[in-house]
């Protein structure tokens, strides 16, 4: 199984969406999955046009729940939350929201389900930087705050293969899909 795991384009950025869709044109995708958040669904729809179908929405692929600070800029967060996010982001529990551990558990379970559905196929998944980092942390055994050092640029590509049930990370945060990886193993 091969998964092309993509971060969404910036909300409303048609150029980024189209660049990613063009990059994945001709890739033999069995399905496109997406977070329900608008920036992800817009991106996934651009990619799914190549299949002639709609993306499949998975609620658990969404970004971390920010709870009481949803919609606020970082500078408007309570000072103690700002400090905790700067010092130990992996241990933060957003007030009225979610912890990084909960995000990781939720996202990994969703991706495991997608893998189980597509044992010998190639799929694309459009999600968010935090969700993708959480999955990489799980797959690679990265502890604590180190996952926050994995760059995830808008509309970029990660490629992960499952070999004998184990994830094998082939590409991280690439602007282009390597030609040798356009097919299923």
What does this structure look like?
The chain is an alpha/beta fold and 185 residues long. It has a single domain (2-65, 99-181), classed as 3-Layer(aba) Sandwich (Rossmann fold). It has five helices and six strands, in the order βαβαβααβαββ. The chain has helices at residues 14-24, 38-48, 79-87, 100-117, 129-140; strands at 2-7, 31-34, 56-57, 122-127, 157-163, 166-174. It has a six-stranded mixed beta sheet with strand order 3-2-4-1-5-6, with helices on both faces. The longest helix is centred in the middle third of the chain and has 18 residues, at 100-117. The mean pLDDT is 96.
Our estimate of the beta-strand percent is 15-25%
Task: Return the string of H and E elements.
Answer: EHEHEHHEHEE
Strand ordering within the main sheet: 3-2-4-1-5-6
Q: What would CATH call the architecture?
A: 3-Layer(aba) Sandwich
Structural domain tally: 1
Mean residue pLDDT: 96
Say which CATH homologous superfamily is assigned: Phosphoglycerate mutase-like
> How would a crystallographer describe the biggest sheet?
6 strands, mixed
Q: According to CATH, what is the class?
A: Alpha Beta
The separation of the N and C termini measures: 7 Å
């Amino acid at each position: 199984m091969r998964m092309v795991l993509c971060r969404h384009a910036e909300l409303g950025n048609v150029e980024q969406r189209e660049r990613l869709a063009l990059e994945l044109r001709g890739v033999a995708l069995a399905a496109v999955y997406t977070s329900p958040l608008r920036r992800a669904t817009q991106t996934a729809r651009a990619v799914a046009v190549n299949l002639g179908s709609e993306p499949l929405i998975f609620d658990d692929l969404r970004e971390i729940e920010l709870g009481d600070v949803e919609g606020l800029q970082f500078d408007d967060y309570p000072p103690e939350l700002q400090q905790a996010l700067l010092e130990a982001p992996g241990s933060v529990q957003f007030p009225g929201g979610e912890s990084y551990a909960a995000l990781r558990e939720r996202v990994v379970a969703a991706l495991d389900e997608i893998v189980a559905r597509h044992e010998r196929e190639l799929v694309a998944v459009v999600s968010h930087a935090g969700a993708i980092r959480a999955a990489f942390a799980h797959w690679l055994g990265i502890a604590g705050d180190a996952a926050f050092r994995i760059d995830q640029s808008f509309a970029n590509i990660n490629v992960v293969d499952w070999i004998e049930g184990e994830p094998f990370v082939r590409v991280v945060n690439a602007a282009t899909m390597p030609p040798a990886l356009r097919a299923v193993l």
